[in-house]
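From the pipeline queue, job 12 of 40. The input is one protein chain; the requested action is below.

Action: predict structure.
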Amino acid sequence: MKNLFYLTIAMLLVVSCQKQNDTSTELSNSELKASITSPYEVGTWSGFCSAAISYTFDDNCANQLSIAIPALNTYGFKGTFFLVTNWSPNWSAWKSAASNYHEMASHTASHPTMSSLTTAQQTTEITTSINVINSNIGKKPISLAWPGCSVGNTTLAQQYFVGARGCSGVIESNTPGNFMNISSIICGSLGSVKTNADFQSRANSAASSKGWVVFLIHGLDNANDGYSPTSSTEFKNSLSFFNSNRSKFWVSSFGGVCRYIKERNVVTLTQTANDASSITLKVTDNLDNSIYNVALTFRRPLPSGWTNASVTQNGATVSSSIVNVNSTNYIMFNALPDGGDVKLIKK
C-alpha cells in the first residue's frame, strides 16, 4: 500500500487550494484518458488550483541550506534540490532537509555536458549520482536536472527518473510533451525572473493556461555562491505571495508534480456501493505504488438530501471540504490511488 504520509500532506491542501465558482481548473475525461465515473471530477492540480509552481535549486549552493530551506519551511512549501554528488555536498544538512520532505534529486555526479558524452558515460554519471544520493539520504532520487541545460539521452533517463528538467524558459502545459525535458525558467541576475513581480507574472500566466511553472535557482544573494544569484528578499516575497494565494497556486516539488500528472492521467475512479448514508469508491492506477504515491484531488456534487459529508480512506478519516462551484455545493477530497476504499459519509 502506498505511503499514507503523502496523503496526509496532500490533505492539508484540500481546504486552502480550491477554486470556487469556476470549473475551468479541471481536465475533461477525454483529455485525461482516465476513467472517472460521473459526476466525479479529478483536479488538474491538487486542490483544483489553477496552476502548479515548483521551486528547483541546482549545484548544492550553501545559501540554499541557510536561506532557501528555512524560507520554504516557513510556509510548509517543499522544494527540489538537484545535487551534484562529486561537489562535496553537506550530506548531513541535505539529509535533514530531506527528512522534512524536500526533494533531493540528481544533477549527475560531476555536472558534465551530457549531450557530449557516450551513452555509457551518461549511464555512469546517472547511476553514480543515484547510488551516492541513496547512500547518503536513504532514498533514491526520482528526478534529474540536465547540467547546463544540455539534454542528453532521454531514453536512458526515462529508465531511472519520472521527470527530467531542462530550461527552455517557457511555462509547461499541464501534461508536458516530453517528461525528460520539462521546461524551467532561470531566475536571478542572469535570468528572466529577478523580482517578486516576475515570479508573480510567470505564475499568473501559468494559471491562465492551467499550466506548470518551474523556477530554476542557483545561489541566493552572493555572486560567489552560485550562478545567477537570486535576491533572497525577492525569493521570500514570492513565497509570501504564493502563501497568500493558495486558492490559485499549488506549490509542490518537481517530482511531486510529475507524479501527480502521471497518476491523474491514468487514474480510475469507480463507485462500488451507494446507499442513503454513504458511498464507497475505488481509486486505482496502473503505476508502481512505491514511486507513485501522491494523492489526487476529486470532487462531486453533494448527493440530493446531503448538506455535509465526511470522507475516509482505508478506514481512516481524511480531510475534506464543501466548496461551492457555480451555485452547486461539492464535496472535495483527496484520495491515494490504490490506498484502499474511499467512503463518503453523510453527516
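Job complete. The longest helix spans residues 119-137.
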